[in-house]
């Protein structure tokens, strides 16, 4: 199968005609681009058909792409590129074909397409998309919200122009966000491979940092001091100590949404699950709530739907204090219903506005943030109360599976790795318990003198005695238990 590579540029002569591969400047480094051309399988009428590849920055890249095309033809796996199909057009077709997505998932995909994938890569032909293009996109995404030396690259400018002019749009993107965008790209490109629009997924070998959620950390006194000094949170997820959590709940006990804060802090429901909780799913006699529905915010709309996963649908037992809080919430709603009469909006939800209508998820989180600031306690997010509930339950029960079931996790791995935090007093108790396992005749003070020579007359009282080659009074390299120092050894560093 024939194929070749060549270099050309867009320079023009005095008559306005392109030099192409005849440009006298092509010998200069960085001038022009490399292209490939090869004989594709003949058309149905037997006519010769040639395809081109490129542009590429180096001859090596062009040679590699040409070799891939020729090899695909010889193996019978060659796909003729759709010359007019751009990445942007394909992504639109791909998302339109995802008819079974949840509203929140569709909204997330659309955001990834509108803010990153379409402005960053949309102008490219799908057949020309390479792993280096994806890597360049993610590198530009890491520059958002940061100071850039010199003028931003065209790619970064396109990303910035696609973002709304709000403070949130200028925030630095986390590795986890970039990984989610990459996951969306991978899903779209995998579908393109299945539909034989491209031969391979160019994102398969793109390497990104793990982006895994880190373990939640407890707000210890030391971490609070560092936060006050630097203004930086030690981790994305931070957990109050039981004392801090109690202080907060006492401070906000008169807040209209106190029952919501209480339920999340003690039983670990997600925000969407708590806002989707109906009275028909609360059994006060059996002291349980059954999580069946989630209410999420998609843009400005509130959408009710299924829980996050199959295991998220679950029944959670209630402690006595939470049971009483929910009973008080029911009495309060009954009083409001009587006061408002026909103006009451009968949603059947446990947590509502004063007129019975559904709460706005983002407004709930913003209200919580304001209460935390007023409390003077170190900052946590509403979702961090879920981490708190997990840590409290695991501390009380030492049962990881029970804790995982309460949270609605598919396995205990995510519960153990991310959600359960160890409180300081538990760590101290564990340290003392471990040390107590070692029997000691006496405990020397920490500043006690450490012998550096063998006891005269042998190691009486010390298990094991002297070694076969040791003599009484022979010095050692370090303290007792270290290797003996040769008798004829003199260090220049010691003797001067």
TrEMBL record:
One of its GO terms (biological process) is DNA recombination. Residues 460-496 are annotated as: Disordered. Residues 485-496 have a biased composition (Basic and acidic residues). GO terms for molecular function: DNA binding. The keyword Transferase does not apply. CDD domains: INT_ICEBs1_C_like. PROSITE patterns: CB, TYR_RECOMBINASE. This is Phage integrase family protein.
């Amino acid at each position: 199968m024939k194929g070749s590579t060549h270099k050309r540029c867009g320079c023009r002569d005095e008559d306005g005609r392109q030099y192409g591969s005849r440009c006298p400047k092509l010998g200069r480094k960085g001038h022009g681009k490399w292209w490939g051309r090869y004989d594709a399988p003949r058309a149905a009428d037997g006519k010769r058909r040639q395809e081109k590849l490129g542009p590429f920055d180096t001859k090596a890249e062009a040679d590699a792409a040409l070799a891939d095309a020729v090899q695909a033809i010889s193996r019978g796996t060659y796909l003729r590129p759709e010359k007019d199909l751009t990445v942007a057009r394909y992504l639109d077709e791909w998302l339109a074909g995802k008819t079974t997505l949840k509203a929140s998932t569709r909204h997330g995909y659309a955001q990834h397409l509108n803010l990153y994938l379409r402005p960053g890569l949309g102008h490219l032909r799908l057949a020309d998309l390479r792993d280096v293009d994806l890597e360049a996109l993610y590198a530009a995404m890491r520059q958002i919200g940061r100071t850039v030396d010199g003028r931003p690259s065209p790619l970064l400018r396109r990303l910035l122009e696609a973002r709304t002019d709000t403070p949130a749009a200028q925030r630095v993107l986390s590795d986890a966000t970039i990984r989610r965008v990459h996951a969306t790209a991978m899903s779209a490109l995998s579908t393109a491979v299945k539909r034989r629009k491209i031969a391979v997924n160019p994102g398969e070998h793109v390497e990104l940092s793990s982006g895994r959620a880190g373990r939640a950390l407890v707000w210890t006194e030391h971490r609070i001091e560092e936060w006050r000094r630097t203004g930086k949170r030690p981790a994305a997820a931070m957990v109050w100590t039981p004392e801090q959590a109690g202080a907060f709940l006492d401070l906000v006990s008169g807040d209209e949404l106190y029952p919501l804060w209480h339920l999340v802090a003690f039983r670990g429901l997600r925000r969407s699950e708590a806002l989707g909780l109906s009275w028909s799913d609360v059994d006060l006699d059996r002291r349980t709530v059954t999580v069946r529905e989630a209410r999420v915010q998609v843009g400005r709309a509130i959408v009710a739907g299924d829980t996050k996963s199959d295991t998220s649908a679950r029944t959670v037992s209630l402690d006595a204090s939470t049971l009483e809080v929910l009973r008080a919430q029911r009495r309060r709603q009954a009083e409001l219903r009587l006061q408002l009469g026909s103006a009451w909006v009968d949603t059947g939800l446990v947590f509502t506005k004063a007129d019975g209508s559904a709460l706005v998820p983002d407004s709930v989180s913003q209200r919580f943030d304001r209460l935390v600031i007023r409390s003077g306690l170190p900052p946590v997010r509403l979702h961090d109360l879920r981490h708190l509930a997990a840590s409290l339950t695991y501390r009380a029960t030492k049962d990881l599976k029970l804790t995982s079931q309460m949270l609605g996790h598919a396995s205990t791995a995510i519960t153990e790795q991310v959600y359960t935090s160890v409180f300081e007093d538990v760590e101290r108790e564990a340290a003392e318990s471990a040390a107590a396992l070692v029997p000691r005749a006496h405990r020397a003070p920490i500043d006690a003198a450490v012998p550096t020579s063998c006891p005269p007359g042998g190691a009486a009282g010390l298990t094991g005695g002297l070694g076969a080659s040791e003599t009484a009074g022979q010095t050692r390299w370090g303290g007792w238990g270290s290797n003996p120092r040769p008798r004829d050894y003199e260090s220049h560093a010691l003797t001067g």
